[in-house]
Structures are given as C-alpha cells and as structure tokens.
Amino acid sequence: MTLSVEQAEIFALEALGWLLGNEELLPVFMGSTGVGADELRGNAGDPAFLASVLDFLMLDDAWVVGFCDSVGVPYDRPMAARMALPGGAQVNWT
User: Residue 33: exposed, middle, or buried by beta-carbon count in 10 A (0-12, 13-18, 19+)?
Assistant: First the structure.
C-alpha cells in the first residue's frame, strides 16, 4: 500500500497520540529521543519528527501490533507511512 505524504502524517499523528496515551511506553520514547513535553507539542507538525515517531514504534513488533490493533489497521501500515515521510524512501543499490 502506498500512502500520500498527508496520509502518512495523519497516521503518524495517530501513532503519536497512541504513544501519549501509553503510560509505560511514553517515557521510553521521550528518553530514547531526548524530546521533552513541550517539544512533543511543538514538533507534532514536523514531518521529520513524525517519521521518528514511526521509527520508534517499529523498534518492537509488540508495539506495532498494539498500536495497529488499537486503530484497526494492518500491521504493515506503519512501514508504508514511514516510507512516505522524510528519509523513508527505499534505497536501491545499483
């Protein structure tokens, strides 16, 4: 599935919302990225930041499953969204 940049950003915002509501995982995200509460709000519209949210989410299959199940999407949707955001294009070594 190919997503537009806008669809990918909306999806990543959903993932950010899911992280914000996850009391166990949010501190892990904030600690691993070094982002503070103010930066979470301020960077929510930045496509590169949203890409980092999806990068973090995809570090653990259980997180992907938990998020995708909560919003009712296929498990490959985070990767499809990530590919549409900055730095997500597939590299072809030819």
Answer: middle
* pLDDT tens per residue across span 3-39: 999 999 999 999 999 999 999 999 999 999 899 988 8
Q: Both tokens of residue 62? A: 């259980």
Two structure tokens written together for 50: 């949203």
Both tokens assigned to 48? 């590169």
- Alpha carbons 22 and 18: distance in angstroms, whole number: 6
**What are the Cα distances from residue 57, in Å, to 25, 43, 88, 93, 94?**
10, 17, 14, 26, 30
